[in-house]
Design brief:
Helices cover 80% and strands 0% of the residues. With 419 residues, the protein is mainly alpha-helical. The protein folds into two domains: 177 residues, Growth Hormone, Chain: A; 224 residues, Growth Hormone, Chain: A (Up-down Bundle), CATH 1.20.1250.20.
């Protein structure tokens, strides 16, 4: 029961961040009417949230590891996140709203990555992948339901939408205070002045760097594909409306919800690295399909499959992140999160010229190249790290005894390994 309470608490934390972050999109029309916001300022509501969220993850895990501990860091983050939501709800103009959106992003940097580290410590290795699958599902639910809730609150009052994020933060803080153990510093024990030095220690670790760079490439590929696919669908000859495009993109989230628990189980059964390679491999045929001329007829199926493959990749990557450097678990998790959201941030300009020159065909090929590069980067760095740093994340369960490099055995293990 204690572990169940911990899991539900962490799942709520994983849900809150993407829920509040993605709620804003359907509110643009209401904000334009009520606050007189320009299109430029409306776009900045996303940027204002993401920049402090991504940047502060470079340091939030380190502070949790060596200064204030896990529970205190999460409680502080939820408090700041709740204040940001309440301030956004009461904002009299767009500039105040942008400021409090930044406050929310800052607070979220102290909740999501540290919650992943807590999960890595609270649950044994043989079930850790399944727990990460549950948390991935909760996060995907937040991404999927955030725009739905934003549309509902826009019809009633957009201010209630932001207030609801504060209510969720209060509920989560109560659960954290009751359910999570009062941990002090992590397993590392440097002095307080070393809080920022551990970031450098973690980023030099081959395992942490492998997972972080792989996440950057994978999520940049995802964001680039979905960004310019959305734009293309709004243009002739497709000419889909915004609700129609939103409904199609929601299929990505639905595919991800289905993938979380299943891939968490497979990650535990097959091993972390094997499951990551399989998840990356599942993205390949989907991206290849977008190069074909008949992709539009298959679009709903492709989006569900892509959502499944992306969620599977996320489960494997986040499990690897929390296990790569146990003595600095939260630091490694937050670095992974920071690189992941850096991928989100750089994708639109990175894919722009390709989209202008080659439409969705070029975008899909560039995304495919980045996914293959992620697999290569992961393999290269972990093999090198295994020799020099004792990296354990490249190991696989002994019970499978899958010879490396033998694809037939690998596929057999993935299909018939007992669940």
């Amino acid at each position: 029961m204690k572990r169940l309470a911990v899991m539900l608490t962490l799942a709520l934390i994983a849900f809150i961040g993407p829920f509040g972050g993605n709620m804003i999109f359907p509110m643009f029309g209401s904000l334009r009417g009520d606050l007189g916001a320009s299109t430029f300022l409306l776009g900045l509501t996303v940027t204002a949230y993401m920049i402090p969220f991504g940047f502060m993850q470079l340091f939030s895990g380190a502070l949790s590891d060596v200064v204030i501990g896990r529970r205190a860091a999460i409680l502080a983050g939820l408090t700041v996140y709740g204040i940001g939501g309440l301030g956004s709800a009461l904002a009299p103009d767009m500039r105040v709203l942008l400021g409090f959106r930044a406050v929310q992003g800052f607070g979220n940097a102290f909740t999501t990555p540290i919650a992943m580290a807590v999960a890595g410590e609270a649950f044994p290795g043989e079930v850790r992948g399944r727990i990460m699958g549950v948390l991935s599902t909760a996060s995907t639910l937040g991404v999927t339901l955030g725009p739905v809730a934003g549309g509902f609150f826009s019809a009633v009052s957009w201010r209630l939408g932001f207030a609801s994020t504060s209510v969720l933060a209060v509920i989560a803080a109560i659960l954290v205070a009751v359910a999570l153990p009062a941990t002090g510093q992590g397993s590392a024990s440097p002095g307080r002045g070393e809080a920022f030095n551990v970031v450098g220690q973690a980023i030099k670790h081959h395992g942490v760097l492998a997972v972080s760079l792989s996440a950057l490439l994978v999520f940049a590929a995802r964001t680039g594909l979905l960004t310019y696919l959305s734009d293309l669908l709004s243009l002739p000859p497709y000419g889909l409306s915004e609700p129609e495009i939103g409904g199609l993109l929601m299929l990505v989230g639905l595919g991800g919800i289905a993938a979380g628990p299943l891939w968490g189980l497979l990650t535990d059964k097959l091993g972390r690295s094997v499951s990551l390679y399989l998840a990356l491999g599942m993205q390949v045929p989907v991206l290849v399909a977008f190069v074909m001329g008949s992709w539009y007829r298959l679009l709903p199926v492709l989006l569900v499959l892509y959502g499944f493959a992306m969620a599977a990749s996320t489960v494997s990557l986040v499990t690897l992140a929390v296990e790569a450097l146990p003595r600095l678990r939260a630091t490694a998790s937050s670095l992974y999160g920071s690189f992941r959201f850096l991928g989100y941030a750089i994708a639109p300009p990175l894919f722009y010229e390709t989209y202008i020159g080659s439409s969705i065909t070029g975008v899909a090929l560039q995304a495919l190249a980045m996914v293959l590069a992620a697999a290569l980067v992961y393999r290269t760095l972990t093999r090198r790290g295994g020799r020099h740093q004792g990296v354990m994340i490249v190991s696989r369960p002994r019970s499978l005894r899958v010879p490396p490099g033998r694809v037939a055995h690998l596929l057999y293990a993935s299909l018939w390994s007992p669940i």
